[in-house]
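Q: Give me the 3D complex with L-tryptophanamide.
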Amino acid sequence: MSETTEKKLIFSGIQPTGTFTLGNYIGAVRNWGPLQDEYNCIYSIVDMHAITVRQDPAKLRQNTLQAYALLLACGIDPKKSIAFIQSHNPNHAELSWILSCSTQFGELSRMTQFKDKSAKHADDINAGLFTYPVLMAADILAYNADLVPIGADQKQHLELARNIAGRFNQKYGDFFTLPEPFIPKAGARVMSLQDPQKKMSKSDENPNACILILDDKDTIVRKFKRAVTDSESEVCYREGKDGINNLMTIYSVVTGKSLDEITAEFAGKGYGDFKLAVGEAVADHLEPVRTEYARLIEDKAYLKECYTSGAEAAFRITRKTLSKVYRKVGFVDAR
Ligand code: ATP
Ligand code: LTN
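A: Here is the predicted complex, encoded as structure tokens.
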């Protein structure tokens, strides 16, 4: 990737907390590949974020490699983009410290992800869980990213990153670019198949609640068959029909059909036919990702080559940012 072009810069990250769900895919990762030609893109497997909740070390290592292979299988080309593992670039953690000194306790306390995760992990409300959004701001600001493609649940964190950047700029003079969120129009919040008022999440205890992008066709079809809907029978997008609305959105994204076209397609048919069609369309859509993943995960040497060169490129860009930041805050030059 050229560092000198005028293209806008994109940064995004995903945690290696398990196999990506259909929510991660539709809300985020699926949109990353097509951006590669128009923008300079940097994508990271954010393992440092993952340890804010308890992880088994061997499992985390395995999940991180899996997540990296999945990223490539979803269309991220390491020749076009920088794709790396967050802990391989220590500049993120260094910048995070500086930025934490421009972040208020009160604003971190208002983060809904912190409230949700501290309720869920009440026995381990560690400082990292609290300062998580500062590290996320550092991920983005270290590259002076213009755009951040994310699902709707991360919007609040991105607003915080903008506030931190603005506060730093006010204290030390204009420096950081204020990043803009890039949230897809459809599928920004894919809901649980078992409780359509909750977002689909990797860490849901009920395996039927989420589709994993490596699930085989039978599993995907079975999970959609069991999806919670409502007591009506009409396939149409309407307030109060959360389960059907979610399935229609998913079907629309994977087939490219509009909501009206979907309503027409299933007029006079029941939910059973509709759920089967959604399951099959999703499974077929994900088939190439599964095949490519199976190939990549066997090629550990190639993966290593990609993530080490990705980390080197990421390091070079962010070291420059950090040197300038250190000068701005008044640290003495190291050499
Ligand atoms: P965890 O359950 O471990 O918190 P997660 O499934 O929420 O993980 P992340 O790694 O935190 O996944 O998110 C990666 C990207 O996927 C983010 O951009 C996030 O906004 C997006 N995303 C996560 N869940 C959904 C969802 N249900 N619908 C749309 N986008 C989602
Ligand atoms: N917080 C995000 C993951 C994440 C991220 C980032 C996303 C960490 N750093 C930088 C975009 C940009 C999450 O939980 N999904």
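A quick observation: The mean pLDDT is 96.
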